[in-house]
Amino acid sequence: MIASTNGILTWKRTGTHDDPVRAIAGGDFSRPGRLADLQLMRYLRACADAVSFGAQTLRDQPDLIGTPDIEGGLGEALYQFRAQQGRRRFPLQVLYTESGRLDLRAPIFNTPRLEVIIITTGAGARLLDARGGNEKRFATLVAGEEKIGSGGLGTAHERLFGEFGVRYLDCEGGAVILESLHQARLLDEIFVTITDVHVEATDHQELKHLFDFDAEGARLIGEGRAASDPGYVFRRWRFNQR
Fold first, then answer.
1. pTM
2. Fold of 2-238
3. Over the stretch 135-162, which tens digit does the pLDDT of each residue have?
4. Is the separation of the CB atoms in 102 and 125 below 8 Å?
5. Does residue 55 contact residue 95 with C-beta atoms inside 8 Å?
6. What is the dihedral of CA 108, 114, 119, 122, to 10 degrees?
7. Where are the domains of the chain?
């Protein structure tokens, strides 16, 4: 997760120009701190058996794919690292959607060798099937008929573990699915990047805020700063010890 200095993660976008991540990053994706943040994200993806996103995150970033080679020269080295760890070249891609309303033309569904698993409802699975989901050859895990509750999420993740060998799942949000995973007691750790940007809450609607880690009983197990950009702080919090 990436958050402003006053703990804001995202808000309801007013259009394509209104990008919370870019705003929280200071409007400059070339900042050394942001590049270090991306490097960390790539490494976490390289360590994961699966990378997951909520449906709204994919709608906001339709070209999103959870592989280690975001940009830059470390892509192949990270894939070699995965091979040394006995992992497949690409992490499994896991999407959460109650409605099943996903754009099946998105790159995540049309990239060779990329395997996608959709956690959805019975209604969502039927909609995906009616829209040609069978042709895309992705797997669906039904976690409820109309809604996905904590129990359904737990069962779906047990299947990810038992049937697909997912031991380490890197969830990159958004805030809604991270909160749902936390409520289901599935969220073990959070890596959060805090920038030096203050976001005016009155400028936006439907704000999402960072967890109150102390109130939630989380433990800070790591902290650091980008050497060339101390305005970025990287923290690792642990909720559950497994």
1. 0.91
2. Dihydrofolate Reductase, subunit A (3.40.430)
3. 667 999 999 999 999 999 999 999 999 9
4. no
5. yes
6. 90
7. 2-238
